[in-house]
Each structure stands twice: as C-alpha cells, then as structure tokens.
Design goal:
Pfam families: TRAM_LAG1_CLN8. The protein is an all-alpha fold. Helices cover 72% and strands 0% of the residues.
Length: 247
C-alpha cells in the first residue's frame, strides 16, 4: 500500500466531522410525537435524517459526475475526475460517521447489517481514494443514493406510523421504480463488468468479492421490501421489530 497522503486523511476527517456536526444540528429539530415518545425511535429518526441528507447530496452529485465525465460508464477502472474523487471521499466520511454513530449508540446488534455494509463499502472506496483507481466504479455505486432518498422517506414514515397516508402509498411505488433504476440496474452492470477480473490476483478481484456480497445483501433487502410493502399479510407482526434496516 502506498504512503497515505495527508490531504486525503484531512478530506476524510473533514467529511466525517461534517456529518457529525450535521447530526448535532438535526437533533435540534422538533420530533413527531410518536417518535419523541420512544428513545430508540428518536435515535433512528436522527440517524435517518443524516442518511437522508447524504442521499440527496450524493445522489445528485453522482448524476452530475456522470454527466460531466460520461466515460465513467465505460472506463470504470481508469476514468477519473476531481469531482468524482471528492464524492467518494465525501461518502466514505459518511460511512465512517454512521459506523461510529451506531457503535457509540449501542445499536450494533440491531444494525449489524449496516455495519457489514459500511465496512465493505469503505474497503471498496479506499481503492479509489488511496490508489485513485476505480473512481468511476465508486461513482456508479453511489447512484444507489438516488434510490435511498425514497427508501429513507419510507423508513421515516414507518417509524412515525404514517403508513396510512397517501404519501406513503405513492412513495412505495416510486421507491420500487427507483430501486430497479438506481440500485439493481447499476449493481448488475458493475457485477457484469467486474466478473472480467475473476481468477486474477488484482484489485479488481478484491472489489468483485465485495460486489458479490453486496449483491446478496441487496437481493435480501429487496425481498424484504416486497414482502413488507406489497405482501404485508405474509410478514409476522413481530418480525424484525428491532432491526434498523427493515423498520
């Protein structure tokens, strides 16, 4: 591994502290009554507010990166732009912040799937940050944040027991479409690309292993989403009661 340049560490530290400061700011906002009455729901609400902000910024940023540097769609390993590089650093800072937030809030058991996801995502993004390779792949991966905007809205409405609102019913269909367009489709495209590294002893092979694990997680989450929103009678009422990802 090459020496870690100090500016990169400062970028990561700055991004992490930015999200920490954002969380403190968002904690001052008024809470819905149903959320305020439960300390666990309060923590989840604040955590999701930060996630929601990250998704909006990163999702739009990823789209702009691809619009400005369309070769990222093809030259996944070598395509590079300063904007894309900063985006990968920015999102890595969020994953570091969220990992720390989960751990210090003693939510590791309920949110262990998020912790696994964050560790894998950071491992993949470090290849772009420290080796400046596969930045295009990192940007394509972050298209998922467009989908996460609507997924987070869904989770926040469920935490607030607002599933009967028209907004929830509309959002669940929009969320499904966005899940296909910005989560499943980019993931399938990247998996097809990285399968070309199978059998090699390269950084691409390492990233392929992470990608395949993420594929499994994404399909599991998708099945949960379908059961919860479109086949609710098949989901036991107590199932996943305390799980952060499936709230």
């Amino acid at each position: 591994m090459p020496p870690v340049p100090l500016p990169v560490l400062l970028l990561l530290l700055g991004a992490t502290l930015t999200f920490r400061a954002l969380r403190h700011t968002l904690c001052r906002l008024p809470l819905p009554a149903h959320v305020r009455a439960d300390p666990l729901r309060t923590w989840r609400w604040h955590n999701l507010l930060v996630s929601f902000t990250h998704s909006i910024v990163s999702g739009i940023w990823a789209l702009l990166c691809i619009w400005q540097t369309p070769e990222m769609l093809v030259e996944i390993e070598t395509a590079w732009s300063l904007s894309g590089y900063l985006l990968v650093c920015f999102s890595t800072g969020y994953f570091i912040h969220d990992t720390v937030d989960i751990l210090i809030s003693h939510q590791a058991r309920a949110s262990w799937e998020y912790l696994v996801h964050h560790v894998m995502a950071m491992g993949a993004f470090f290849s772009g940050i420290f080796w400046k390779r596969f930045v295009g792949g990192g940007v394509l991966t972050l298209l998922v944040e467009v989908s996460n905007i609507f997924l987070t809205i869904r989770m926040m409405m469920k935490i607030n027991n607002a599933q009967d609102l028209l907004l929830y019913r509309v959002n669940k269909y929009v969320n499904l479409v966005m899940y296909f367009l910005f989560r499943l489709a980019p993931q399938a495209y990247l998996t097809h690309y990285f399968l070309g590294y199978a059998g090699q002893r390269t950084l691409g092979t390492f990233l392929l292993s992470i990608l395949l694990l993420l594929d499994v997680m994404i399909l599991i989450y998708f099945s949960r989403l379908l059961r919860s929103d479109f086949c609710p009678d098949r989901v036991p009422s107590q199932q996943h009661k305390d799980k952060f990802l499936t709230e």
